[in-house]
Write a structure and sequence with these properties.
alpha+beta; Alpha-Beta Plaits; three-stranded antiparallel beta sheet; 2 helices; 3 strands; DUF2007 domain-containing protein; DUF2007
């Protein structure tokens, strides 16, 4: 196994792992228990996403697309205060 992604926090690690899992790449998220070690401080940089060596190339391609994705800000309400349909 190798580290394919170093996340800022455990939530980001699970988002990336979920994206990779949805594409058939088996993942392991490490760093869960390190969060408690930092106490009240903002825990960052301890969560990693691991993949088996045979998934490395595919995972790198998917992560490149993920990191280049553009953020789309969807409005929570229109000018009249109504939620968008759909």
């Amino acid at each position: 196994m190798k580290i394919i992604f170093r996340a800022n926090d455990i939530l980001e690690a699970h988002i990336v792992a979920g994206m990779l899992n949805s594409q058939g790449v088996e993942t392991y998220v490490g760093g869960h228990y390190l969060q408690g070690a930092v106490g009240d401080l903002s825990a960052m940089g301890f969560a990693n996403v691991f993949v088996a060596d045979e998934f490395g190339a595919l995972a790198e391609q998917l992560l490149e697309a993920y990191q280049q994705a553009e953020f789309i800000d969807f409005p929570l309400a229109d000018e009249e205060g109504l939620a968008p349909a759909g």
